[in-house]
Amino acid sequence: HLVSFSLADGKPVSLSPLESQPHSPRYTASSQRERESLEVRMREVEEENRVLRKQLSLAQSRSPSHHRGNHSKTYSMEEGTGDSESLRAGIVAGNSSECGQQPAVEKCETIHVAIVCAGYNASRDVVTLVKSVLFHRRNPLHFHLIADAIAKQILATLFQTWMVPAVRIDFYDADELKSEVSWIPNKHYSGIYGLMKLVLTKTLPSNLERVIVLDTDITFATDIAELWAVFHKFKGQQVLGLVENQSDWYLGNLWKNHRPWPALGRGYNTGVILLLLDKLRKMKWEQMWRLTAERELMSMLSTSLADQDIFNAVIKQNPFLVYQLPCFWNVQLSDHTRSEQCYRDVSDLKVIHWNSPKKLRVKNKHVEFFRNLYLTFLEYDGNLLRRELFGCPSEADVNSENLQKQLSELDEDDLCYEFRRERFTVHRTHLYFLHYEYEPASDNTDVTLVAQLSMDRLQMLEAICKHWEGPISLALYLSDAEAQQFLRYAQGSEVLMSRHNVGYHIVYKEGQFYPVNLLRNVAMKHISTPYMFLSDIDFLPMYGLYEYLRKSVIQLDLANTKKALIVPAFETLRYRLSFPKSKAELLSMLDMGTLFTFRYHVWTKGHAPTNFAKWRTATTPYRVEWEADFEPYVVVRKDCPEYDRRFVGFGWNKVAHIMELDAQEYEFTVLPNAYMIHMPHAPSFDITKFRSNKQYRICLKTLKEEFQQDMSRHYGFAALKYLTAENNS
């Protein structure tokens, strides 16, 4: 078998004279002889390996079935030279047989990655790509994201709340770059953003020497440092590292009159590019590609494959620019590809590229394996990727330092420690998980319905959408795997897919509590209308409530007064309810006992001040006073105070918010022709915990008292009534 001297981590032992020089001054002739004999033995082993490799490759070329004995790899030269995998297997192979080889990537060297990303869907794809890179990485990473305003908002929030150590993110405004490439007609589905990789030499910092450029539909199956190491193999004027295109596109024989852009042979695929930026700038890359594009567009009229056509046309004229990467660095899964010739074994796979518009439905005999690998990262818990890099100090991050300071001030022996800690937990947040498109009405009366939910309430979404045609902002508390279930559910629903004015904001699960008020705050923060209706996911608004609220906003001058408009809440215990079409119909159902005022049986105080007796006959809005434990559903201006995050799970989360509105002198006004109905459901996990766990109830009481003390400190004399009201209740 092949022999090599390697350390435990598979790196070859270096025996250069400097490194073997002992620190002791007593360096004897005998140790000199030992070193020389070891070197002789090493050379003998090398020679044995060389002969054995030759025999193995001869045997393999004769053998029809490729048997991979003891991990030896033989890649043909035209596939490039992938040596790091064979080094890991402890084989000093091919062109890397010098004993003194140093690791190609330093331990804490930062790897730079550039990605062009625009819109809602691409932002989701980027997360899966980033997860696959983070999963395998051992080096600090610096992502350079060329993003439009949408992707920037989504990804900036995501990375701020993800707080992954040793990862830096910089954004570059893709919309500012449009003028650089908008003169090129492009038929590819990526649109104008598909051309932006051409201008990276201009866009990225001028002191950045090299960068790996990736499409968003890429999945890594290995450490990205292995790809970064390939830069060391560039020779002469090589400035672009690319994998050969694995489809027949550039051969021009796919159909009659098929005329692709000029390319060298099969051409190259630009889903994975190594760019030597400093050399490209010296070569005047900018002029080079522009002149080529202008010349070719005279006859071609437009690009079919965006930047890839132009890269290939430049390479056709200047083949010396390319270092051809082994094809396992970009296994292309579009239809009609030769990708299966790239890998003989799963361990050969390094990068998978879903470069077909069909994505996961592409035809490939191993597609099931690829799909599962992709789904692994899609559903992988991103919180597990927050691990520190050992031995690489990460840059001080203000957010994480503040968080550590706040947590260190908590007493871990406090029985309510877990409750208090939740207030400071930073939950990874992915805003606008699905496509969102909404321009608020120009008359400044628009209202967004705000609610939060977890997986068990998903079935309410369609019903709410049927009852409320206006904009909706939802915070969903989900795990990574549940987020993908939600995505499939939404994409399979005609009702949800026909609506573009619903913002779905995913707050990822962490810790043991349901952070109800954090969720409400996330949903409230991301509305684009001047007013919001603070509802709950289990309620169906009456038909026409959206338009009625917009009229009420004007009628009650909400723009210039501090008011909270109350929508009276009712409930049914029936799963199949014939929903009342009018107030008159609702009143007759109340009288018949098919409807009740909300929480009539268990918690009358929550809605008693609404004064349902008065509401029955009211035809104009009327004012009510705050009372202890009041928790109505209200319409307010978007500048209303946030919910208090100390309240998690069940209990006091809305009560505290209404108390704060009262302290800020909001007027509570009941709307005479508005109503909402609570639909029945199984009790939530948190209410079950509240009913069964004494400690939960004790901690809730403690937090309540602390909140009231904070209120009196903050609002002074006016807030004393909350303490006395509480004592009397």
From TrEMBL:
It is a single-pass type II membrane protein. Transmembrane segments: none annotated. It catalyses: 3-O-{(1->[3)-alpha-D-Xyl-(1->3)-beta-D-GlcA-(1->](n)-4)-beta-D-Xyl-(1->4)-Rib-ol-P-Rib-ol-P-3-beta-D-GalNAc-(1->3)-beta-D-GlcNAc-(1->4)-O-6-P-alpha-D-Man}-L-Thr-[protein] + UDP-alpha-D-glucuronate = 3-O-{beta-D-GlcA-(1->[3)-alpha-D-Xyl-(1->3)-beta-D-GlcA-(1->](n)-4)-beta-D-Xyl-(1->4)-Rib-ol-P-Rib-ol-P-3-beta-D-GalNAc-(1->3)-beta-D-GlcNAc-(1->4)-O-6-P-alpha-D-Man}-L-Thr-[protein] + UDP + H(+); 3-O-[beta-D-GlcA-(1->3)-beta-D-Xyl-(1->4)-Rib-ol-P-Rib-ol-P-3-beta-D-GalNAc-(1->3)-beta-D-GlcNAc-(1->4)-(O-6-P-alpha-D-Man)]-Thr-[protein] + UDP-alpha-D-xylose = 3-O-[alpha-D-Xyl-(1->3)-beta-D-GlcA-(1->4)-beta-D-Xyl-(1->4)-Rib-ol-P-Rib-ol-P-3-beta-D-GalNAc-(1->3)-beta-D-GlcNAc-(1->4)-(O-6-P-alpha-D-Man)]-Thr-[protein] + UDP + H(+); 3-O-{beta-D-GlcA-(1->[3)-alpha-D-Xyl-(1->3)-beta-D-GlcA-(1->](n)-4)-beta-D-Xyl-(1->4)-Rib-ol-P-Rib-ol-P-3-beta-D-GalNAc-(1->3)-beta-D-GlcNAc-(1->4)-O-6-P-alpha-D-Man}-L-Thr-[protein] + UDP-alpha-D-xylose = 3-O-{(1->[3)-alpha-D-Xyl-(1->3)-beta-D-GlcA-(1->](n+1)-4)-beta-D-Xyl-(1->4)-Rib-ol-P-Rib-ol-P-3-beta-D-GalNAc-(1->3)-beta-D-GlcNAc-(1->4)-O-6-P-alpha-D-Man}-L-Thr-[protein] + UDP + H(+). It is found in: Golgi apparatus membrane. Pathway: Protein modification; protein glycosylation. Residues 1-42, 54-82 are annotated as: Disordered. Pfam families: Glyco_transf_49 (PF13896), Glyco_transf_8 (PF01501). Residues 32-42 have a biased composition (Basic and acidic residues). InterPro entries: Glyco_trans_8, Nucleotide-diphossugar_trans, Xyl/GlcA_transferase. SUPFAM superfamilies: Nucleotide-diphospho-sugar transferases. Keywords: Glycoprotein, Glycosyltransferase, Golgi apparatus, Membrane, Multifunctional enzyme, Signal-anchor, Transferase, Transmembrane, Transmembrane helix. This is LARG1 glucuronyltransferase. It comes from Smutsornis africanus. The gene is Large1.
